[in-house]
TrEMBL record:
It comes from the Bacteria. The lineage of its organism: Bacteria, Pseudomonadati, Pseudomonadota, Gammaproteobacteria, Pseudomonadales. Residues 30-142 form the HD domain. This is 5'-deoxynucleotidase. Pfam families: YfbR-like. Coiled coil: none annotated. InterPro entries: HD/PDEase_dom (IPR003607), HD_domain (IPR006674).
Length: 195
């Protein structure tokens, strides 16, 4: 049996800190971020199916969300203001991410590559699933910004406003559902949650 470094390699995501160009009160690594995106993508997909006439494979969305930032183990976490600074930078960075996706895919045993391709290679993820994952990712960014501001960190105030505006423009009803149903509790303390 062939040995593979795939999981050992992506386990290094725990050492990759997010929000690198901002002073953080609450640290966040890519591995924990990926778990949060997956859990929120899960409920977005469920809500889409249950309340908004969707017919998505919830488990496929969750698995793709778990792997959505794996390429960052190669590329690092590029801050959004830089990643989207200009069309040229965005195009170049997307090409690097695409190459990183394929390099990770090539670490897998040959007979597993076809199974991983639709969840690991961003270009292979269906547009509908990608949209749900992107929405979950944006919700996570919003919740992170809110938590930082609530912790007294003004560094995230403008980012919170900007990400909130993006969420308001998101036309997916499941996003509004999450923001109304689940997001308000994020500002509560543990004691308040337990009451």
């Amino acid at each position: 049996m062939t040995k593979s470094h795939f999981y050992a390699y992506i386990s290094k995501l725990r050492w990759l800190q997010r929000w690198g160009m901002k002073r953080n009160v609450i640290s966040e690594n890519v591995m924990e971020h990926s778990w949060e995106v997956a859990t929120i993508a899960h409920v977005l997909a469920l809500a889409k199916n249950r309340y908004f006439g969707g017919n998505v494979d919830v488990n496929a969305v969750v698995v793709a969300a778990l792997y959505h930032d794996c390429s960052e183990v190669i590329t690092g976490d590029m801050p959004s203001p830089i990643k989207y600074h200009s069309p040229e930078i965005t195009k170049a960075y997307k090409a690097i991410e695409h190459q990183a996706d394929h390099e990770l895919l090539n670490l897998l045993p040959e007979d597993l590559k076809a199974d991983f391709r639709p969840v690991l290679v961003e270009a292979e993820i269906s547009a509908e699933y990608h949209s749900l994952i992107k929405s979950a990712d944006t919700i996570c960014a919003y919740l992170k910004c809110k938590a930082e501001v609530q912790a007294g960190n003004p560094e995230f105030r403008k980012a919170e406003e900007d990400v909130h505006k993006r969420l308001e423009r998101d036309d997916c009803p499941e996003v509004k559902y999450f923001l109304e149903t689940f997001a308000p509790s994020y500002g509560l303390t543990l004691d308040e949650l337990l009451r």
